[in-house]
Write a structure and sequence with these properties.
Number of strands: 10
Structural class: alpha/beta
Shape: globular
Radius of gyration: 17 Å
Strand content: 15-25%
Largest sheet: 8 strands, mixed
Helix content: 40-55%
Order of helices and strands: EHEHHHEHEEHEEEHEHEH
Length: 268
């Protein structure tokens, strides 16, 4: 693809984010490998592991091992139900080694929000694990992540589908994956966490609808039958398959967009 830079934005969406793996798998099978990856929340996790250079086969293998119990640990700190320690252990087990974002083979960014001043941050330097931990910190669920006098929470508070950041990092073609397209899985909340989660889902979905679309193609996934907070092998397999199949359907459009972008670069 020469000098053409392809970027992809991976949205937040909790356990639904397993579908991101299927999208990336379909792209790679068609010789399309993003040069830039930006993620929010679960998108930062999948995107960060991918940007580290870990093969997709290994990422998929590790994703099938993730269980709800491995991510959630009850916390006594009143700033969040969960401490995040179990989540960090899981991320470390997948990555194996610590990575600096600026040294990754693929340009990467994780979106977070400083809850002390409401500022949106794109983390493009420093510890990959810490960036992911900050980006997945859903307010009220996870304890905010402390870094450099900042209290960082989930980037989905302001930007759940960070297409704009992909564009600003230099992508000629911007693809994005929206996990919350037509997502209405709401039931009567049975716990306080359910109430927080349902309100969070509604906010994230509305923010995506209201923000400008910076993508050349937005891959909208229909994931209504799944729950954002339940991780299991069976669910992961199904979500990966959905992401893969939907991307394969859109492949003619994706290739046409890339071809047109390459022609523009050649002319210039």
């Amino acid at each position: 693809m020469g000098n053409l830079k392809i970027g992809i934005a991976l949205s937040g969406g909790g356990a639904l984010g397993m579908a991101h793996i299927g999208v990336l798998k379909a792209l790679e099978e068609n010789n399309i490998k993003p040069n830039i990856v930006v993620g929010t929340s679960i998108g930062s996790l999948v995107g960060g592991v991918y940007a580290s250079g870990l093969p997709l086969e290994k990422i998929e293998e590790e994703a099938l091992k993730v269980k709800t119990s491995k991510l959630y640990d009850v916390n006594l700190n009143m700033s969040g139900f969960l401490s995040g320690r179990s989540a960090i252990r899981t991320i470390k087990n997948i990555l194996g080694l610590e990575h600096l974002i600026e040294e990754l083979p693929i340009k990467y960014g994780a979106v977070a929000v400083d809850i002390t001043n409401g500022e949106e941050l794109l983390i493009t330097q420093g510890s990959l694990i810490e960036a992911i931990r900050a980006s997945i910190s859903c307010p009220g669920v996870f304890v905010p992540f402390k870094k450099d006098n900042k209290l960082l929470v989930d980037g989905g508070v302001l930007n759940n589908l960070p297409e704009d950041h992909v564009k600003n990092l230099g992508a000629d073609v911007v693809l994005s994956v929206n996990l919350l397209h037509n997502y209405i899985p709401y039931t009567k909340p049975k716990t306080a966490i359910h109430s927080v989660a349902f309100g969070w889902f509604i906010m994230q979905k509305k923010l995506i609808e209201l923000k400008p679309n910076y993508a050349d193609l937005r891959i909208n996934l229909d994931l209504n039958k799944y729950r954002q907070y339940i991780f299991s092998k069976k669910t992961a397999e199904e979500l990966i398959s959905i992401g893969y199949n939907e991307t394969i359907k859109l492949m003619p459009q994706i290739k046409a967009i890339i071809e047109n972008a390459e022609k523009k670069i050649t002319k210039n």
